[in-house]
Amino acid sequence: MGRPPARTIDQATTERLLVAAERHFGREGFAAARLEDIAGDAGISRPSLLYHFKTKDDLYAAVVDRAFARLGEALGAAMVTGGEFPDRLDATIRRYLAFLDEQPQIAQIVLREFLSPSPAGRGLLMTQIRPLVDLIVRFIRVEGRGYVRPDLPLREAVLQVGMGSLVRSAAGDLRGPLWGEQTEDDAARAARILFLGGEVGR
Questions:
Q1: Each residue of 23-64: pLDDT tens digit?
Q2: Cα–Cα distance measured from residue 52 to residue 118, given in angstroms and rounded to the nearest whole number
Q3: How confident is the model at residue 185 (pLDDT cuts 50, 70, 90)?
Q4: Residue 9 — pLDDT band, cuts 50, 70, 90?
Q5: With contact defined as beta carbons under 8 Å apart, do 125 and 26 qualify?
Q6: pTM for this structure?
């Protein structure tokens, strides 16, 4: 059996690096995360890491781009599922919550940038977050006409749900004591009531 092509090996190594970097950047922040530690977790040397990503800034940008691309795809798919708008809103909110539960390090990265922006991070994150917020606001405004509370300040509501869920995801072992045994269903229901003003359709 022959060796896999070099391109396949490079792709697998890149993926391991991104997973390791996401973990370190989330836990330690951009400044404190060390390339040596990221490379070690990915099973390669620091010079090999620099073959894939020339600088720490490049690695950080790739981590953020990858995370928001996955989140955008997940939310976009939820928005076009079948059913009435309340069901699609439910699916979108649940997918966002599930993404954060699966990837708490992403919430940590975003919150770190809001509280203590890194040279590489704040502008990069804003170029990712704003289009995503715009996408969700447009979805609710257009598709939710006749469902969404007419008095709702929509952008503020989207950011309230989004940031509240980020904090919940990033809270680690404080999540239980602060939020209790809140489930994804509870969080989605609360967000749904905020947007629709009540339990519509169920």
A1: 999 999 999 999 999 999 999 999 999 999 999 999 999 999
A2: 22
A3: confident
A4: low
A5: no
A6: 0.84
How many domains does the chain contain in total?
A: 1
119 falls within a domain: yes
**Which positions ≥6 away from 9 have C-beta within 8 Å?**
none
Q: Which domain holds residue 158?
A: 61-196
69's CB contacts (< 8 A; 6+ apart) are: none
- Indicate whether 187 belongs to any domain: yes
Q: How far apart are CA 196 and CA 183, in angstroms?
A: 20
Classify residue 1: in a domain, yes or no: no
Task: Please tell me the distance from the alpha carbon of residue 71 to that of residue 42, in angstroms, as a whole number.
Answer: 23
pLDDT in tens, 90-107: 999 999 999 998 889 999
Close Cβ partners of 32 (under 8 Å, ≥ 6 residues apart): none
Chain centre to alpha carbon of residue 27: 15
Tell whether 5 is covered by a domain.
no
